[in-house]
Amino acid sequence: FANGQQMLDSTINTAAFTFDFYTVKTILDKEVWKFVTTDIAGNSKTDSIVITGSFGEILTYNSKTLGAQSNTTEKGFISFRNSTATQYTQDEAFNHQADIDMFCFYENTATSVNMMTLAAPGSNIKGIFTGATSPELFTVKNVTFFVKTTLTAAQFDAVTNDAVIRASFDPTKQFKKAKLLTAGDVYSFKLQSGKYGLLKVIAVAGAESGTLQIAVKIQK
Known about the structure:
The protein has helices at residues 90-94, 153-157, 163-168, and strands spanning 30-38, 44-52, 58-67, 77-79, 86-88, 102-108, 113-119, 145-148, 177-178, 186-190, 196-205, 211-219. The protein is built from three helices and twelve strands; from the N terminus they run βββββαβββααββββ.
C-alpha cells in the first residue's frame, strides 16, 4: 500500500520474491509505503517505509502584461532565460531568437477561433505577424508546450515549490498553444530549455491590439 492505495496483490509460491515498480513521487512531503505478507495459515507480517524528497525552488512573476500582435505599447514576446522574465517587441525578439519562449496574439477568423492566445516560435503560427521580423521567419524556433489544468487561481497562488508544477504537466494533453485564454485559467507549460512552469491568466482585454495579463511561477 502507498498512502493508503493498494499497489499490488499477488500470490507467490517461491521462497524469494522480487517486485520492480516504477512511479513518480507525489507532491506530498512524506509518503508511507506499507508491505503486508500473509502465509497460507493466515499469519501476517507488516513492514513500512517512509519516502521523503525535496522539491525545487521556483521564481514568481506576479504580473506580466503582454501585447497582442498590433499592440504598440506592451511588448508581446517573453523569455524566461537566465532567471528573468524579459519582454521584447517583435523586432527585438528577432535579434534574441534563441531566448524567446512565448508570444501573445489574437486570432478570430472563420477557420481559426483562437482568440487571445499564447504560443512560441516553434508553434508554426503563420499569417498573424507581418514584416521581416515575423516569428515564422526565425531561424531558431523554440517550442513551448502548454497543458490546461484544473487548478484554481487560489491553488496557483498557494504554490511555493515545483511539486505542483511538475505534477500538473500531463504530456498526453500537451499542445503548442494555449488558446481562448480567460481570466482564471491556469496552464502548466514546458519550455524548450526543459524547465516547467505554471501561468495564471489575470486579465484579457481587446483583440489584435489587446493585452494579456498573466502571473507565472517557474522552476528556478
